[in-house]
Amino acid sequence: MSSGSSIHHSHHTYDHAHDAAHDHDHVEANKKYFNNSDFSLQVNEHAVFLEFANTVSAAIREVFPFDPSSPTALDFACGTGLSTRAYAPFAHAKGLADKMSGVCSELKGAEGELYGAQFDVCIMAYQHFASAKDITSIITRFLKPGGMLLVVDIEVIATIDSRPLVIEGLQNLDYIPHKRGFQVEEGLVSLNMERLTHVTLGGRFDVDTLLARGVRPSEK
Fold it and tell me: Which helix (H) or strand (E) holds 213?
């Protein structure tokens, strides 16, 4: 990978031997939905999602101070790239667009994937993956020593009666295995977790968002 700041955003597909059939079903369901809908147009032009992307961007920049000299970032499960574009200018203000690349890849954690690239920060969501443990193991292989993994996702609501419309909307989506979100207490595979923010989207949809982060040990 060339030197200088760069942002790579990858669609959220992966493959793993563990429970492969179950995982494959979700991978294919995600592909089918996002490839055959106008979802990206709906999201990228909607004020509600723009507001959420900016909120996520601000939180990411608080926990990972982007050094404009040479950071590289992998935004895995980037969706339409809306959140990526919200924080990308803070990684490198000049010429960043020329160094952004989009990849649709089924990651297995094999040597040489993504051209052997390693990243200072990997940013992703978990709700589209059947196994948080498996995908964490794969993604951390792409982190540089001292690099940070950030996971932004929906926080589970304690009672069904109080869950917001956002959670209700997940219940009938076949391509999302985790329809309830996650709890801060779950830890998501030994990552430090904290409540990120409570967002009221467009005055209609309430959603609690959490941020999980972990740092790959530096080489001695």
Answer: strand 205-215
Question: pTM score, two decimals?
Answer: 0.63
Report yes or no on 208 lying in a domain. yes
Q: Do residues 87 and 74 make contact, with C-beta atoms less than 8 angstroms apart?
A: no
Q: Check: CB of residue 6 under 8 Å from CB of residue 114.
A: no
Q: Is 220 part of a structural domain of the chain?
A: no
Give the span between the Cα atoms of 30 and 23, in whole angstroms.
11
Cα(44)–Cα(17) distance, rounded to whole angstroms?
Answer: 34
Q: Rounded CA gap, 53 and 96, in Å? A: 18
Structural domain span for residue 173: 6-215
Q: Residue 10: inside a domain, yes or no?
A: yes
Q: Are 154 and 182 in contact (CB under 8 A)?
A: yes
Number of domains in the chain: 1
Digit-by-digit pLDDT tens for the chain (220 residues) are 333 345 555 544 444 444 444 455 656 766 666 666 676 677 777 777 788 788 888 888 888 877 766 667 888 767 777 888 887 777 654 333 444 455 555 667 777 777 777 788 777 666 666 667 777 777 878 888 888 888 777 665 544 444 444 445 444 444 444 434 444 433 334 455 555 555 555 555 566 677 777 777 776 5
